[in-house]
């Protein structure tokens, strides 16, 4: 069970009073693109679900115009709080331990990663760790498969935190090269293996480095391992796999920013997260928190009361709390016509999970401390 962006899942079974806050839509389980619209109803703060004054005319997102605290489940009846459950994430941390990482760089990386794996916000994420370059000997230096085997095996946090912290404390920079090509390739191979063997799970590689690729050697099966384009191609391979395995890049001081951004873009994460010399440890911790928020998918398991039939599919509503400001998210029949959420699979199949539309998902990922609440018992608000 994985908390998303440290998203708490507050579930309130609505009594009669909550209906005064929520509008009532129709065809709540209709899938995006089905063309089935929701009926109008009383929206948050008294407007209608399609009130242009509260939602820009789309009816997709309504900002509560009522009390500052928005829709309060406790005002209706006793709240039932559960841990948020989203699609499990496997994060493979590929950590550069070349000689250039010695000193403050390494101290900051160890401290930052220690804080990351021990943070309550990371609970539920499955993490594996690999240092590169590998020790001499064993498989050939170009062998990507050798990097697919983590130094700390994948396991869910917080249970795996102790092993990760021990490994970080027992390692030190001692590499003469920065073999990014086989390291990233191995990380992606492991990610692909994980999503193949665990349907419904997601995986990502987090490359942490302070330099440009160097080695191993001058040729890896006909490929120059120092060629930035070749490394970017590996990242693209991960993106093109179904389901995608993304590549995140955290560039510590000294990294070639052009290279880091190229690999991140090819890996489906737009750009690298670059840490400056100002406060390496604090910025690195922030970078890791951002990766965690962006990597976790916008997919949520149905609350138990819904999956067990105690609450109807048509009596589920979502709201996002960002810094105390609550925004209601409407269910949509077509993400292209209005941002919102929908069930997967769509009716007439039995829904198995809740998904956010891309625009809402992107917004949540940018605010990785946001809190998603699911309110149960009142008819679902639907985009008209």
How would you characterize this protein structure?
The chain has ten helices and 15 strands. The chain has 384 residues and is α/β, with parallel strands linked by helices. Helix 3 links the parallel strand 4 and strand 5. Helix 3 packs across helix 8 (280-295) and helix 6 (228-240) runs parallel beside helix 7 (257-266).
Condensed summary:
27% of the residues lie in helices and 20% in strands.
How does the major sheet shape up? Answer: 6 strands, mixed
Q: Number of helical segments?
A: 10
SS-based structural class?
alpha/beta
- Number-wise, the strands total 15
Low-confidence stretches: 1-31, 33-84
Q: What portion of residues belong to β-strands?
A: 15-25%
The percent range for helix content is 25-40%
Rg result? 23 Å
Task: List the secondary-structure elements in sequence, H or E.
Answer: EHEHEEHEEHHEHEHEHEHEEEEHE
Indicate the overall shape. Answer: elongated
Distance between the termini: 33 Å
The strands making up the biggest β-sheet line up spatially as 2-12-11-15-1-3
Mean pLDDT: 78
């Amino acid at each position: 069970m994985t908390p998303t962006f440290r998203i708490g899942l507050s579930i309130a079974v609505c009594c009669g009073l909550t209906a005064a806050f929520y509008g009532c839509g129709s065809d709540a389980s209709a899938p995006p693109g089905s063309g089935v619209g929701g009926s109008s109803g009383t929206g948050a703060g008294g407007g209608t679900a399609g009130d242009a004054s509260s939602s820009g005319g789309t009816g997709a997102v309504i900002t509560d115009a009522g009390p500052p605290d928005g829709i309060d489940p406790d005002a209706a009846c006793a709240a039932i709080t559960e841990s948020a459950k989203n699609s499990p994430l496997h994060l493979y941390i590929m950590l550069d331990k070349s000689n250039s990482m010695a000193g403050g760089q390494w101290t900051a990386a160890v401290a930052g990663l220690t804080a990351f794996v021990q943070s309550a916000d990371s609970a539920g994420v499955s993490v594996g760790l690999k240092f590169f370059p590998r020790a001499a000997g064993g498989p050939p230096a170009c062998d990507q498969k050798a990097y697919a085997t983590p130094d700390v095996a994948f396991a869910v946090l917080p249970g795996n935190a102790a092993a990760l912290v021990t490994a970080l404390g027992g390692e030190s920079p001692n590499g003469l090269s920065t073999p990014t090509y086989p390291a990233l390739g191995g990380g992606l191979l492991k990610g692909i293996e994980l999503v193949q063997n665990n349907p419904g799970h997601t995986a990502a590689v987090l490359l942490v480095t302070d330099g440009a690729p160097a080695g191993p050697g001058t040729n890896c099966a006909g490929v120059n391992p120092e060629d930035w384009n070749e490394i970017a191609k590996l990242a693209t391979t991960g993106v093109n796999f179904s389901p995608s395995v993304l590549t995140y890049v955290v560039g510590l001081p000294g990294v070639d920013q052009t290279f880091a951004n190229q690999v991140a873009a090819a890996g489906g994460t737009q750009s690298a997260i670059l840490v400056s010399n100002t406060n390496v440890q604090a910025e690195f911790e922030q970078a890791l928190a951002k990766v965690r928020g962006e990597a976790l998918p916008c997919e949520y398991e149905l609350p138990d009361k819904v999956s067990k039939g105690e609450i109807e599919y048509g009596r589920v509503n979502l709201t996002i709390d960002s810094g105390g400001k609550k925004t209601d998210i409407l269910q949509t029949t077509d993400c292209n016509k209005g941002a919102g959420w929908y069930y997967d699979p769509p009716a007439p199949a039995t829904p198995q999970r809740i998904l956010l539309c891309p625009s809402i998902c992107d917004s949540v990922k940018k605010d990785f401390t946001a809190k998603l609440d699911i309110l149960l018992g009142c008819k679902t608000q639907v985009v008209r």
